[in-house]
Amino acid sequence: MSSAQTELLNPPTDAVSALKYGTSSKLLVASWDKNVYLYDTSTPGGQLLQTFEHRAPVLDVCFGASDDEAFSAGLDWDVKKIDLSTGDQTTLSTHTAGVRSIVYSPQHSLLISASWDSTLHIHHPSQPSHLYSTIRLPSKPFSLSLTATKLVVAMSSRTLHIYDLKSLSILSSQSSQPSPNMLDAEPWQRRESSLKFMTRAVACMPNDAGYASCSIEGRVAVEWFDPSPTSQARKYAFKCHRQTTAPEEGGVDVVYPVNALAFHPVHGTFASGGGDGVVALWDGVAKRRLRQYQKYPASVAALAFSGDGKFLAVGVSPGFEDGTEGEGEGVVKVFIRELGETEAKGKGAK
Fold it and tell me: What is the DSSP string of 295-343?
């Protein structure tokens, strides 16, 4: 591996489900081993600051209003607030199935969770007495991402809903019915995915212009929010994370799922991670691959850029894409890659 890359010491003991950076060098890692880990990644190998135990595998995690506040969600159905300085955990709401994704909007002080019970819960963490609101979704959500103004919900049935966060904030703050406090919130836009197969992840552009999504069938799509025909004509999808077997093995095109996407907060380029153990950097506007990193020892499960864009965290876990299980210990790892000044910078349009 490159000298610009280090491996975190004391990684999770089971698959990594999510990675999230705060405003500093603090990194949250959610794992199937029923824990949330907090690391300081400012030094090589990092430092494990704290571990927060849960009752079931944790599927997602994010920072809140500060780097001392976090939120988690997973297979215990609970949405939890974690005080990172004291270790105290508070349950904010409970879904009726596993909670797949959770995001926090600092601009609107909103926490949004998406569960396999086909609902969103809208929380106001800064107002503990305020009851969460519930939005019914048409199908099961797989991934959430947000910008300063919009929330994107990627679901099964190749459905996407885009919500206006200001509207959600106003509606939910005015609603005070008894639980589940159903909210009749219409999405700003309803879309069908450009990808023919199941969506794995969605990630919004930092400039609030659009989003990328990825599927189990080795493809990534890039789309823009602007509903005008001119803007919609710009959307496209491309193949990636595929490998061709040797000629003696038939020269078959092996297709891997694209598990993770993350946009660079400064340059607006994005990284993709796949079941082939590869991380690639893309310029979505110029439609170019900038670089592809040396293969990782297992499937790439999660990606996260630091707030200043100087570091890329890569979580790898056994994905069993090759059909073999029992790979042994040591394949669950988190790598921190230090990026050169122009490493993730786009090259401009052709």
Answer: PPSSEEEEEEE-TTSSEEEEEEE---TTS-----TT--EEEEEEPPTTT
**Hunting for tokens 């590869």 — which residue is that?**
278
CB 249 within 8 A of CB 242: no
For the record, the structure tokens of 65 come out as 């209003």
**CB-based contacts of 296, cutoff 8 Å, min separation 6:** 277, 278, 279, 314, 316, 333, 335
pLDDT for 242 beyond 60: yes
What are the pLDDT digits (tens) for 37-80? 999 999 999 999 999 999 999 999 999 999 999 999 999 999 99
The answer to whether the beta carbons of residues 112 and 93 sit under 8 Å apart is no
Q: Is 173 helix (H, G, I), strand (E, B) or coil?
A: helix
What does pTM read for this prediction? 0.94
Band (pLDDT 50/70/90 cuts) for residue 88 is: very high
Residue among 241, 243, 266 at smallest CA distance from 254: 243
The two structure tokens encoding residue 29: 């890692």
Residues written for the chain: 350
Amino acid at 302: A
DSSP annotation string for 246-303? PGGGT--EEE--EEEEEE-TTT--EEEEETTS-EEEEETTTTEEEEEPPPPSSEEEEE
CA distances from 104 to 19, 51, 52, 278, 321 (A): 14, 21, 19, 28, 32
The answer to whether the CB of 309 falls within 8 A of the CB of 264 is yes
Distance, in Å, from the CA atom of 23 to the CA atom of 304, rounded to the nearest integer, reads 12
Backbone angles phi and psi of 59, in degrees to 5: -100, -25
Report d(CA 212, CA 194) in Å as an integer. Answer: 10
Per the prediction, the chain carries an average pLDDT of 93
